[in-house]
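User: Fold this; tokens only.

Assistant: Input:
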Amino acid sequence: MSADTAKTKSTQEPTRREFLNLTGAAFGAVGTAAVVWPFVSSLNPAADTLAMSSTEVDLSPIEKGQSITVMWRGKPVFIRHRTEAEIEDARSVDMAVLRDKQDDKDRAQKPEWLVMVGVCTHLGCVPLGQKETESKGDFGGWFCPCHGSHYDTSGRIRKGPAPKNLAVPEYEFLSDTTVKIG
């Protein structure tokens, strides 16, 4: 064979070495994927966490002035059926006196229903104020006795060491008597 024929043949047909390199690379890629896939899959939320990602709450048994606590994603969520006086108190607050400035209209989709995560923003305690017999603090909302944080009837921090208002989770009203949290 001449040199020109050998060059032409090698550019047209892969050599055994090229075939083995390609096969080795393919097996390496498949092996790497087989090792990495379970690790990446383990980073996804567990089935029980996904099941808790949203919850529906029937609001019909809650009277005006009453509060309930439901669990969502392992956290307590406070739902209060506010009275007209509580709504008026929340709306009449001068925004300049608030540490974490948030208007009541931005915290409650419907003025009579307040939905928020019941975890103090200072150190993660659960504030008092859900039951009629519990202290509601100086502003008629919630009181965290651990370090003395006082929240108003909109869940906004008014006094004490907590830096932020009680968080408002993502929620939507499915009907007048049903709310979906999450």
